Amino acid sequence: MTYLVEKPALRSSGLSRSAFRIAMVAMAASAVVACRPGHTGPQVAGWSLIEPTERHPILVSQRPVTLSLPVRRGSYGLSNSSRHRVARFLGKFRTIDTGNSKLVISAPTGRANEVAAMQAVAEVREMISDAGFSPTIVHVETAPGSSNVRLSYLSVVAKGPECGHFPTNLGRAPKNASSPNFGCTTQKNFAAMIANPADLLGPRTMTPRMADRRDHTYGGYVKGESTTAKKSKDEKASTQKTE
Predict the structure, then answer these.
(1) pLDDT tens digits, 22-71
(2) What is the DSSP letter of 234?
(3) Of all helices (H) and strands (E), which one includes residue 185?
(4) Cα angle 147-151-152, degrees, rounded to a multiple of 5
(5) Contact 162/177 with Cβ under 8 angstroms?
(6) Distance CA 137, CA 93 (A)
(7) Segments making up each domain of the chain, as ranges
(8) Topology at the third CATH level for domain 62-154
């Protein structure tokens, strides 16, 4: 605990320096005694001094999201339905936007459809590239004994606190302190409504900049031209002076 102690001014006719030091030591000792857990003075429940966000934290964790694609022996690439499923899967993966997530492709080996599965994996990687994802986030691994091609990533999920804890009588609160359940419902609803739980861990990564307009503006600046966008007459306002 921290206390702000105002030091009394020393007077020539008052306390000596030695007496002043003794008085300050006594004040510090009394402050330490007041902070002891066994002190019988006025106490305030510890949870009443904690903010609801700290009292009822939201648990953020990760869980795997998997898409299994059957591949028949002798087929070439993905079927139309599998392509639509991969496109929807990549759309969901884009929404998590954690910046360090990996797309894992599990390719079956040692089965009769191994050749067809490798062709399907190549098509999946092409769809990932066409969707604008960096090749660095793709990780391909073998899945011995499996006959399906699987895509997976780790999704961030948020779990709210368990509410309904009322150990005290809310009708009698002489200290006017908040109840232990205060703020729990707000936290639980917030965890259920948040669109991207990864936002609770930190800001999202930046998307690549659009250099077309930037290069055009900078080129005009180098030539000494105006860098403002040109406007038509309909976008300009004018006034006329009337007699």
Answers:
(1) 444 444 444 443 444 444 333 344 555 678 888 899 999 988 999 999 99
(2) G
(3) helix 184-193
(4) 125
(5) no
(6) 11
(7) 1-39, 62-154
(8) 60s Ribosomal Protein L30; Chain: A; (3.30.1330)
Q: Which two tokens stand for residue 109?
A: 């080996």
Q: What residue spans of 194-240 are helical by DSSP H?
A: 211-223
Report d(CA 117, CA 124) in Å as an integer. 10
Question: What is the full DSSP assignment across 130-149?
Answer: HTT--GGGEEEEEEET--EE
Q: Which amino acid is at 110?
A: G
List pLDDT tens digits, range 224-234: 888 777 777 77
Cα dist from 203 to 98, 196, 199, whole Å: 9, 11, 6
Please say whether the beta carbons of 126 and 140 come within 8 A.
Answer: no
54: nearest Cα among 145, 182, 189: 182
User: Number of C-alpha atoms within 13 angstroms, CB side, residue 127?
Assistant: 22
- Sign of the C-alpha dihedral computed for residues 108, 111, 112 and 115 taken in this order: positive
